[in-house]
TrEMBL record:
Entry EC no(s): 3.6.5.4
Domain SRP54-type proteins GTP-binding: 266-279
Catalytic activity from the UniProt record: GTP + H2O = GDP + phosphate + H(+)
Top-level taxonomy: Bacteria, Pseudomonadati, Pseudomonadota, Betaproteobacteria, Burkholderiales
Organism: Rubrivivax gelatinosus (Rhodocyclus gelatinosus)
Protein's recorded name: Signal recognition particle protein
Length: 441
């Protein structure tokens, strides 16, 4: 995987103080390959690599990082920035009803997404939502919207297939106004390909209803073709947002980068299943990791930096699954954490959403606890560490005395150990993060 290849390259760059043409060539080549494999369009890749190189060259390498690690960090940040920073929710800041127009090719997921958005708006933003289909070409499409709207718990406005799309939408808008709907979602006809007549129709529709949001719905599996579609829709309509659908498929979602650049609008949502609740607010940071084909590139940087052995973590996880996680393993987890520079130092380096919960905890206290736990486990015999169930009252007293703590502390450690066993059983490997969250609070 890219992650393996990058971490190998990162290792070869140890001891170099600066990012230079020479030492980033190989890294950039790998990143370029990864992006192309993820279906990012070539011009977008070229642009991206140029920007990364620009930012990276000559950059001082911070603290204990080496050029490779610094570069990986730059790549990740730039990738997330390219796909949009922060969260871009729907803009409803208009005199209600706020009109949302759905645009995109046939099969992109417009009708499904209309219902998903209706549900999102009802549940998350407490809105009263009406949907209408301007798809006059296929009666089945109108029925489909009716069905999914019901599932979403929203209301549906019937369309007369003999009317013009703009008249249908205007009738729905009038109804929405008179019945105090907050939002009107307008689903539109499918276009199998870019078709001038249909583009003219949706432009006309747009002009009639003045949507506050015009969402371009695009299938992430479309790969390279998505860029042409995005360009055509961008030329026809002032897009305000993108919904990337079918991200639950095999695609690595590279389309996100291309489409965002070409459409010039933020990606607001991601479709992640056929079901009505299969919609997520788009998270650029997380998506950057997916496009690069690595779970969490920032965590990777940290791991390489501090020499935590992923194979060890995996071995440990396997052991837990087999039921063999003992206090020795617990101790080695604890010392691995110390190697990573302590809890506080580590938390600062991780992406915020990952540690939001853990950050609330008192880090100094957490570190003191860790040291004390080490002391306690070190006071146990080898047999006791392997078989914690042996630890009855008299042994606990001896251990407490040895470690200079109260017996309650030994009990507390054993409780934490048991909790940990539970956590470890649930995770598939490399679950250091989860463990730290548990310890942090
Ligand atoms: P439209 O022609 O643009 O209105 O597309 P539809 O909403 O009818 O969706 C076309 C197909 O894609 C349907 O079978 C949907 O169930 C499916 N679909 C839509 N969004 C998603 C998604 O996020 N994930 C998956 N797996 N399927 C989706
Ligand atoms: Mg449809």
């Amino acid at each position: 995987t890219l992650s393996d290849r990058l971490s190998r390259l990162v290792k070869t760059m140890r001891g170099q103080a600066r990012i230079t043409e020479g030492n980033v060539q190989d890294m950039l080549r790998e990143v370029r390959m990864a992006l192309l494999e993820a279906d990012v369009a070539l011009p977008v890749v070229r642009d991206f690599i140029a920007r990364v190189k620009d930012k990276a060259l000559g950059q001082e390498v911070a603290g204990s990082l080496n050029p490779g690690q610094t570069l990986v960090g730059i790549v990740h940040k730039e990738l997330a920035a390219t796909m949009g920073e922060g969260v871009a929710d729907l803009n409803l800041a208009v005199q209600p009803p706020a009109v949302i127009l759905m645009a995109g090719l046939q099969g992109a997921g417009k009708t499904t997404t209309t219902a998903k958005l209706a549900k999102h708006l009802i549940e998350r933003r407490k809105k009263k939502v009406l949907t209408v289909s301007a798809d006059v070409y296929r009666p089945a499409a109108i029925e489909q919207l009716k069905t999914v709207t019901k599932q979403a718990g929203a209301e549906w406005f019937p369309s007369t297939p003999t009317d013009k799309p703009r008249d249908i939408a205007l009738a729905a808008l009038d109804h929405a106004r008179r019945h105090y709907f907050d939002v009107l979602l307008v689903d539109t006809a499918g276009r199998l390909a870019i078709d001038e007549a249909l583009m003219a129709e949706i432009r006309d529709l747009h002009a009639a209803i003045h949507p506050v949001e015009t969402l371009f719905v695009v299938d992430a599996m479309q790969g390279q073709d998505a860029i042409n579609t995005a360009r055509a829709f961008k030329e026809a309509l002032p897009l305000t947002g993108i919904v990337l659908t079918k991200l639950d498929g095999d695609s690595r979602g590279g389309a996100a980068l291309s489409v965002r650049q070409v459409a010039g609008a933020p990606i607001k949502f991601a479709g992640v299943s056929e079901k009505i609740d299969g919609l997520e607010v788009f998270d650029a940071e997380r998506h950057a990791g997916r496009v690069l084909g690595m779970g969490d590139i920032v965590a990777l940087v940290e791991e390489v930096q501090k020499g935590v052995d992923l194979k060890e973590a995996q071995k440990l996880a396997d052991k837990v699954k087999a039921g063999g996680f003992d206090l020795n393993d617990f101790l080695s987890q604890i010392s691995q954490m110390k190697k990573m520079g302590g809890l506080a130092g580590l938390m600062d380096k991780l992406p915020s959403q990952m540690t939001a919960k853990a950050k609330g905890a008192d880090m100094d206290k957490a570190e003191r606890d860790v040291r004390r736990m080490e002391g306690i486990i070190n006071s146990m015999t080898a047999l006791e560490r392997r078989k914690p169930e042996l630890l009855k009252a008299s042994r606990k007293r001896r251990i407490a005395a040895g470690a200079g703590v109260h017996v309650q502390e030994v009990n507390r450690l054993l409780n934490q150990f048991e909790q940990m066993q539970g956590v470890m059983k649930k995770m598939k490997g490399g679950g250091l993060m989860k463990m730290m969250k548990r310890m942090g609070g």
